[in-house]
Amino acid sequence: MELKKYTEQEVLAGILGNSSKTLQYVYKEAFPGVRKYIMSNSGNDEDAKDIFQESIIITYKKLKNNNLVLTCSLKVYLFSVCRLLWLKQLENQRKGIQEVNVGEFVLNVGEDVLDIRDQNERYELYRAHFDLLKEDCKKVLRMFLDKIPLKEIAKQMGFTEQYAKKRKFQCKETLVKSIQNDNDYKEML
Questions:
Q1: Interval 102-130: pLDDT, tens
Q2: What is the mean pLDDT of the chain?
Q3: Confidence of residue 2 (pLDDT cuts 50, 70, 90)
Q4: What pLDDT score was predicted for residue 135?
C-alpha cells in the first residue's frame, strides 16, 4: 500500500487529530532512523518502538498545548526527542531505575541535533560536579532550583535567612569553579 506524502503541517494536524494514516506515514518516514540509532546503542526493536511512541506522545502534548514551534524538520525533532528519551532510559537502567517519566523531559525545539548533543554533554558535566558537592550544598541548591523560598530553605536547614543566602552563594560558586577547572569544560569552550 502506497502512503500519501504529507506536508509537515498536515502531519502535525494528523498527530493532533490522531489520524491513523498520518501516523502510519510518520512511522514510515521517521521510525527507521530511530530504530537504527537505538539498536546500535544497546537497544532492541521493542525499545525503539516504545521510545518512538513516547516521542509521538510528547509531540501530541506539545501540539495540544500550543507549545510546539519547529525550527527544524519534524523528522529531526522526533529523532532528537527519541535520542534524549533513550539516553535517559539508559542512564536510568545504569542506576537501576526501570521507568522513564516522559513528563520530566523539556526540549527546546529551536535547537538542532548538534546543539542538543552539546546540551547533553554540558548537563552530564554539571551532574558529575554537582554529585561531588557536600550534602548540605546539594540540598541547598536543590531547594533553590525547586524555587523554594529562601526563608523556607533557612528553616529546613536550620540557618538564619542571611546565612542561607550566603550558603547558597558559596555552594553555587564552588560548583561553578569546579566545573570551570574541568578539562572537559575547557574543551567545550
A1: 444 444 343 444 455 566 677 778 888 88
A2: 80
A3: very low
A4: 93
Answer whether 48's CB lies under 8 Å from 99's CB: no
Q: What is the rounded distance in angstroms from the CA atom of residue 139 to the CA atom of residue 168?
A: 10
Domains with residue ranges and CATH for the chain? 1-110 (1.10.1740), 112-189 (1.10.10)
- Rounded-to-integer distance, Cα 59 and Cα 73, Å: 13
> What cell does 85 get?
528519551
For 137-154, give one letter per residue: b (16+ CB within 10 A) or e.
beebbebbeeeeeeeebb
Torsion-angle region of 72 (φ positive above 0: left; ψ -120 to 50: alpha; else: beta): beta
Going by C-alpha positions, the residue among 143, 123, 116 that lies closest to residue 185 is 123
